[in-house]
Amino acid sequence: MKSHKFTIITLGIILLAVLPTFNSCSNKAKQIENKPKYIFLFIGDGMGLNHVNITQAYLQSINGEIGYQDLTMTKFPMSGTCSTYSKNRLITDSGAAGSAIACGEKANTGEISFYDDIDKGETTPISIAKIAHNNGCKVGIITTVSINHATPAAFYAINKSRSNYYDIGLQLPESGFEFFAGGGLKYPKDRNNDKENLYDICIDAGYNYIKDITEIPKFKKSNDKVLFESPVLWSDAEMPYEIDRTEHDGYSLSQIVNAGIDFLDNENGFFIMVEGGKIDWAAHENDAATIINEVIAFDNAILEAYNFYLEHPDETLIIVTSDHETGGMSLGLGQNGYKSDFSLLANQKMSSYQFSTIIKNYKTSNSTYKLSEVINLANAHLFIDDLSLTEYEMEQVKNAYRYYFFNETNLNTIQLNNLYDNYNPVATTFIRILQNRASVGFTSWTHTAASVPIYSIGSGAEKFSGNIDNTDISKRILDITNW
Q: Is this model's pTM higher than 0.85 or not?
């Protein structure tokens, strides 16, 4: 009897030990069953929280109201912040930050998913896009800048330097990813223009190189790969700023994302990385109105993914974040106290970059220059309504005019760099005057160490709330998907 009782107790202990294992397996099976089939990763390059906030405040202010109008991304139920530092610097660049997001491991500034110096035994970090592809997902890489630029490159290439555009471009067809779109290939024949054309190499590898977005669907039927390039590109193979697109045409980021979703949609799922790359470029130029237009264009692209999510809510995960903050933007200026009016930025109708071209052309096509003509150029091209310059503002314009056209200045090199950096002094000054009136400021011409926002919705979105590091993004995607 005693032996029988011992047996029952023993069996009970065994069952108690085994049951958690059964529950664990059941939970894991449930997790795998509910894992996302369609994954979107949106990266607003250079987009800090204040870039999002000023866009919200601007949209509210042009309606005559005070507050923050919701964007698609800010409506997502999960949100948090993401730290961005690189392996060797607190202030990162896009190469290191893109690598950290893509591979889940800190990289040195300037590197593209390059980890030869990390002791990882037999496992070297590879990008989440490559892992998704290895697990049967179709992959799309979309950007508004060149497709071999730092952020998109981190998802398909490995290189010691982000500046090796040609070598990075060679790895594009090697990836086998099904869809590359947006900007073109920078230095397609390398810097000396003496190597085989990257476009030809991509075509030989089976990519259909097209510039007409309406042609994309026909290649889906044959399961082909597509390299889609916007028909309107600027000097660095990038798409025009959204604020300039009305004049220069070309497709919007949202149109390209929509086409990419349709092309990549399949029963095995997809992974799509979308970069709003020119938020960063506009922030480098301290151009608030252009930043706002880029953030709106980026958010419109997110809306395309959100509409897809509404059709597949249990199978879709959307993550929106940034690689770093650029510009040190402030919503408020000491000189204006507590006053602000961001609706004034609606008076700007082209980017600082584009107006710089107009000023440069004026300088090269004339042998004599007049301040009045330069002011007229600003009123005719940069602003919708003429600016009535105050005495203080006129003095700023005169100083920029003298420096740019005649190289006359009382400022030293450091002061000039703080005031204009390497950008056109005249264009920069006119932009700053409008921004000062609106109460927008910048503390830097480069990146900052500020944390960036992260928003998410869909299957597994709760994993991306709170305060996380950029290396957590790919790790948590792997955890959710069980890849």
A: yes
